[in-house]
Design a protein that fits this description.
Helix content is 40%, strand content 12%. By secondary structure, it is of the alpha/beta class.
Length: 257
C-alpha cells in the first residue's frame, strides 16, 4: 500500500469508524409509535424522542385534546386500545408506513379507592377486572398484531411492553388486583411473542419504568419522569439480542418474573 493510499484509508476510518456512521440510520429515519402518549410517561417519551430527531407517532383516545403531544411535533393518531374498531382504524391510517419501535404504553390502573387498599376484594368487580385486562393485557397484544405489517418494513423491529414491578409474583401482597394481574399477564404476552416464529427478527421486552410522579403514579411517587424516561429511552435505543424476551427495569437491570 502506498503512503497516499494509507492516508486516505486513515482519513476514512476517522470519519466513518468501522463504517458505523455510514450504516446507522439517523434518528429522523427512525419512527417510534407510543400508545397513550397524550400525558404522563407516554408524553415524556414522545417529547424526548421528538427532541432528538426521531419521527414520533403518538396515540390518544381524544386527539383534539392532545395539545401537549401535538406541540412535540408528533403525528397524533386516535386509538382506544380496548376497542377493536379503533385499532383497525389506526392500522388503516398508518398503512404502508414503516414503524421501527412500538412502545405499548397505554395503561389503566383503576379507581384509586378500589385498588390502593390490600383488602379491596370486598369492592372488586368483574367489570373492573375485565377493563384492566382489556387495556393492559389485550391492548398491547392486538395493537402489536395490527402493526405487524408496519414493523416488518423496519430492520429494527422493537416492541416494548410497559409493565410494572407490581407484576412480579413475589412482589408482596396488597391490592390493585386488576392492575397487577393484567400486567403479570402482559409479561406472558411478552414471553409468548418473543418465542413466536412469526416474530423472527423482532426484539420484544417488558419494561418496568418505576414509580413516577404522574397522574397515575400520584405525587407520592419517588421518581421524576424526565430523568427516568431518559434512561428508558437509552435502554430502548441500545436493545440487543440479550434483552429479547426479558423483563427490564428502567435503569437497565434485569427483573425477575
Amino acid at each position: 500500500m502506498t503512503t497516499k493510499a494509507f492516508l486516505l484509508l486513515l482519513s476514512a476510518s476517522i470519519l466513518f469508524p468501522l463504517n458505523l456512521k455510514a450504516e446507522n440510520k439517523a434518528p429522523k429515519d427512525i419512527t417510534v409509535l407510543i400508545t397513550g402518549a397524550n400525558r404522563g410517561l407516554g408524553l415524556e417519551m414522545a417529547t424526548q424522542f421528538a427532541a432528538d430527531g426521531y419521527t414520533v407517532i403518538g396515540t390518544a383516545r381524544t386527539p383534539e385534546k392532545a395539545t401537549k403531544l401535538k406541540a412535540t411535533g408528533a403525528q397524533v393518531v386516535q386509538l382506544d386500545v380496548a376497542d377493536e374498531k379503533s385499532i383497525a382504524s389506526m392500522a388503516s391510517t398508518l398503512k404502508g408506513k414503516k414503524i421501527d419501535i412500538l412502545i405499548n404504553n397505554a395503561g389503566y390502573y383503576g379507581p384509586k379507592l378500589m385498588t390502593e387498599k390490600s383488602d379491596n376484594i370486598d369492592k372488586l368487580t368483574r367489570e373492573e377486572m375485565t377493563r384492566c385486562i382489556s387495556i393492559n393485557t389485550l391492548g398491547p397484544l392486538f395493537v402489536t398484531q395490527a402493526l405487524l405489517p408496519n414493523l416488518r418494513l423496519s430492520k429494527i423491529k422493537k416492541v416494548i411492553n410497559m409493565s410494572t414491578r407490581q407484576s412480579i409474583l413475589n412482589s408482596g401482597p396488597g391490592g390493585a388486583y386488576g392492575y397487577r394481574i393484567s400486567k403479570t399477564a402482559l409479561n406472558m404476552v411478552t414471553r409468548t411473542l418473543a418465542g413466536d416464529r412469526a416474530m423472527g427478527g423482532f426484539l420484544v421486552i417488558s419494561l418496568a419504568p418505576g414509580h413516577n410522579k404522574t397522574t397515575m403514579g400520584t405525587a407520592r411517587a419517588n421518581l421524576d419522569p424526565v430523568p427516568t424516561m431518559k434512561k428508558v429511552k437509552h435502554l430502548i435505543e441500545n436493545l440487543t439480542r440479550k434483552h429479547h424476551g426479558g423483563f427490564w427495569f428502567y435503569d437497565g437491570s434485569r427483573r425477575p418474573w
